[in-house]
UniProtKB/TrEMBL annotation:
Residue ranges of every copy of the F-box domain listed in the record: 8-44
Organism annotation: Pelodiscus sinensis
InterPro entries: F-box_dom, FBXL15_LRR, Leu-rich_rpt_Cys-con_subtyp, LRR_dom_sf
UniProt cross-references to Gene3D superfamilies, sorted A to Z: Ribonuclease Inhibitor
Residue intervals of the F-box/LRR-repeat protein 15-like leucin rich repeat domain: 77-244
UniProtKB keywords: Leucine-rich repeat, Repeat, Ubl conjugation pathway
GO BP annotations listed: SCF-dependent proteasomal ubiquitin-dependent protein catabolic process
Cellular-component GO terms for this entry: SCF ubiquitin ligase complex
Domain of life: Eukaryota
The protein, known as: Uncharacterized protein
């Protein structure tokens, strides 16, 4: 049965838990199950309490250039060192979810900038040690970014946003929930550079006023979704600007 020609095809449809079980059946199945080409998309959320840095390092070494999507959402044990090894080995990564990986710092973003130029989707939600330096790094090395989530990264300021959008002008979705230091000037930088932006979340960005929203409306005509919940400084002037300038808003 090990020599069945369509077995590799079957293995390509299996999730990582099933692959690991198959790897224990025989030597032949072990080779097939652990082939890097079967590990292009990995979601470790269900194993978050068991995932440590060495696990990520081992996965990255095995998957190498095959890995395209990785979710480490909620993996509190993963830090900068493991993600540096990951970035060095998985240079074709396109989607990376680090939501809730609270141990990571700017060092991780430097590694991604240096080695992962194909990155399109990055989720840094609640990575509270991330600063403007991370955004500068991403703008220099990850210029293909289309989707970036910085929610609750409350050290981010307008200077970080300015650096980010100058290098990542192709952003289509930007989530800034809870980035409480952001002011209207941050939105001016987005206005000037992110003309492809379709989704913008400013929930609880309490310093934003009508002035900032008007700027967004004038520069981001492709906007389809805008969240300003908790932005208590806004008035009808923002609604008027949205109505006049953002016909795609849903």
């Amino acid at each position: 049965f090990d020599s069945v020609p369509f077995l590799p095809r079957i293995f390509s449809f299996l999730d990582i838990v099933t692959l690991c079980r198959c790897a224990q059946v025989s030597k032949a199945w072990n080779i097939l199950a652990l082939d890097g080409s079967n590990w292009q998309r990995i979601d470790l959320f269900n194993f978050q309490t068991d995932i440590e840095g060495r696990v990520i390092e081992n996965i990255s070494k095995r998957c190498g250039g095959f890995l395209r999507q990785l979710s480490l959402r909620g993996c509190l044990g993963v830090g900068d060192s493991a993600l540096k090894t990951f970035a060095q080995n998985c240079r074709n990564i396109e989607q990376l979810n680090l939501n809730g990986c609270t141990k990571i710092t700017d060092s991780t973003c430097y590694s991604l900038s240096k080695f992962c130029s194909k990155l399109k989707h990055l989720d840094l939600t609640s990575c509270v040690s991330i600063t403007n330096s991370s955004l500068k790094g991403l703008s220099e090395g990850c210029r293909n970014l289309e989707h970036l989530n910085l929610s609750w990264c409350d050290q981010i300021t307008k200077d970080g946003i300015e650096a980010l959008v100058k290098g990542c002008s192709g952003l289509k979705a930007l989530f800034l929930r809870g980035c409480t230091q952001l002011e209207d000037e941050a939105l001016k930088h987005i206005q000037n550079h992110c003309h492809e932006l379709g989704i913008l979340n400013l929930q609880s960005c309490t310093q934003i006023s009508d002035e900032g929203i008007v700027k967004i409306c004038r520069g981001c005509h492709r906007l389809q979704s805008l969240c300003v919940s908790g932005c208590s400084n806004l008035t009808d002037a923002s609604l008027t600007a949205l109505g006049l300038n953002c016909p795609r808003l849903k």
